[in-house]
Amino acid sequence: MADDMKKAEEAVQATTHASLDLDDLNLTEDQIRSRKLELEINKERDAIILANPNKLPVAVWFIIPNELGERFCFYGITPILKNFFKYQLGYNIAADANAMKDIFMGLCYFTPILGAIISDSYLDKFKTIVSLSSIYILGLIVLTITSWPTVMGVATTQMSRAGPLLGLLMIAIGTGGIKPCVSAHGGDQFLSVQTYGLQAFYNYFYMSINFGALISSTVSPMIAQNEYFPWPLAENQTLTQYFAPKGLKAPLGNGYPYSFLMMTCFMIAAMGIFIAGFKTYRVVPPAGRFILFDHIKTGITYAGYRMKMKREDAYKATADIHTEGMVVEMLDLIKVIGAIWPAPIFWMVFGQNSGPWQDMGEQMVVPFGGSQKGFFGTETLNNFWNPFFICVMAPILANYVYPFIDKRFGVRAFGLQQRIVVGQVLAALSFVVSALLQRWVNSTCEAGEEKDSCAGTVSILWLILLYVIITLGECFFSISGLNFTYTEVGKRTKSSCAALWLLTSGIGSFLSSAFLTATMSADQNAVAAGTKKYSEITWNRENFLWLLAGCCLASAMVQFVIARNYVPKAFRETAKF
Asked: Among the four residues 11, 165, 420, 459, which has the most C-beta atoms within 10 Å?
């Protein structure tokens, strides 16, 4: 054992010298000091890791369960959120409920920027995760209490919006803030010699996300669909009669507070497991200042010189002021931003699979004698198959399809940018099929019934085909995008760039909300107000689905042009240009 520890310490010293060699780029004094501090405070942990480098660090077994628990909570909220807005908070128009859900999702993907700034610049990742997880838990508690009718002393359909919306805001800050930190913190537990161990960790990490989503997206709707609280019905009034004046079908249940309570308990347990691993974690110290601000200053300096001199001269002049390492990282970051800017359109379209698709499912027939409350009901169906197919498809693509293509046609034939394009095309195809399916469903309704709300005779199992197509598109697009934003930037901007990738999803959610408000929501409100007949509106569900398909296809065409001109960092002649 003593010999093993001695060898490990020698390996740590060798790693230290290699790290302080500082690559082929000069760094600032603060960057050098940060590197030295990281090596010093992790000396003992690194020795333990290097004593058996083929074994996964103990720390990851505290990080992975934490991620599973947190994702269980998040994906337990999202499938029931639309109906919670519709039936409990009074957003009676379906498009309004979908728009509110999109706003929540958008906030969840905007706040990663906050988490990245805090963890990279001021607090380390562990402290950031614990701090923001506390806000997350507090938000879950507020949401649970303020949505509980007997606690609030009101009827289940007369809940105040203020409390639940405040809770959801806190949840969005918490879940989004920790999102770029947890995966990066997991990566920090590995040394440079543990390449295969790092890959194994991210495989387990990604599987934990989808395993948590798979369970919660099934269990949470089942709990929410139970009736735990009395409805405020008049004497001899049925539930259908009560909701008919609101333009709504009778709800399946009102058990939302119990679902929220379950997720609160899981998040508390997840945070407890994460904190329990404190002594096993490698810690990467923060920079002590706003890193992105340094890159912005570097970019402004470079732009000023570029207006007066040639590119290479501007590069050298900027490097003399801000160091060459900072200039290269800034240029890499700009290239990546230029390559991913169409991504919000994909996320805008992708987010509609839990809105219009779920609404379409309510018109369809549940097979095997089941009901909408069962496994094949629209809420469960629309949130089970996506994580299920990800768990199936992602390993197949990573372990078999991509290696085969790389070996057969070369690594640049189907690179990350090309996969992103294919993902967008598949997403567009799924919405073409969904528009045709909506037309089919409406055609089976009784004569005289309003389209998009009538009961058709088409089986809800056809929705599974849509999830096969769009999930395959997500695997190509999302996983490749995460990989792209990690590999194409420098070491000090990886967390920030990961947050920028998540930001594209947030922008997409807000675009989705704006689209719904300007199209379907406006027309549905006009019908509800009596100013239009349903046959007179432009944006029925089928036309809206065609619009989404067209937007995604247009985005894919733009992305194709970008992919044709983008040179991956590994294949550039120099690191600079």
From this structure: 420
Instruction: Name the DSSP class of 530.
Output: T
The alpha-helical segments, DSSP class H, found in 225-355 are 239-243, 256-276, 291-306, 311-322, 324-340, 343-350
SS3 (DSSP) at 365: strand
Predicted pLDDT at 515: 79
Cα–Cα distances (Å) from 17 to 10, 37, 65, 99, in that order, read: 11, 13, 34, 54
Give the whole-angstrom CA distance, residue 32 versus residue 220.
Answer: 49
Nearest to 483 by CA among 430, 427, 429, 414: 414
Burial 60-84 (b: 16+ CB within 10 A, else e): bebbbbbbbbbbbbbbbbbbbbbbb
How far is the C-alpha of 422 from the C-alpha of 32, rounded, in Å? Answer: 41
CA distance linking residue 365 with residue 180, whole number of Å: 41
The residue type of 322 is H
Buried b (16+ CB within 10 A) or exposed e, 176-186: bbbbbbbbbbb
Residue carrying the six token digits 């394009």 = 421
The 3-state DSSP class for residue 55 equals coil
For 203-219, the DSSP string reads HHHHHHHHHHHHHHHHH
CATH number of 53-230+239-287: 1.20.1250.20
State whether residue 160 is helix, strand or coil.
coil
Q: Cα-flanking dihedrals φ and ψ of residue 567, to 5°?
A: -105, 115
First-last CA distance in the chain = 49
Single out the residue of 115, 84, 547, 484 nearest to residue 348, CA to CA. 547
CB of 361 closer than 8 Å to CB of 437:
no
Give strand pairing partners of 459. 365
> Alpha carbon 336 to chain centroid distance?
19
Radius of gyration, alpha carbons of the chain:
26
Q: Which amino acid is at 40?
A: E
Q: What's the pLDDT at 30?
A: 62
Q: CA 279, 283, 285, 291 torsion: positive or negative? A: negative
Q: What superfamily does domain 339-577 belong to in CATH?
A: MFS general substrate transporter like domains (1.20.1250.20)
Mean pLDDT split into 10-residue runs, the chain, 577 residues: 44 42 52 72 80 84 91 90 87 74 84 82 86 95 93 82 93 89 81 69 78 86 88 84 78 89 94 92 78 84 91 89 83 90 92 81 84 70 80 83 87 88 96 95 84 85 93 90 78 74 84 78 73 75 91 96 89 60
- Of the candidates 177, 58, 40, the one whose C-alpha atom is nearest the C-alpha of residue 110 is 177
Which of 224, 115, 59, 237 lies closest to 495, judged by CA?
115
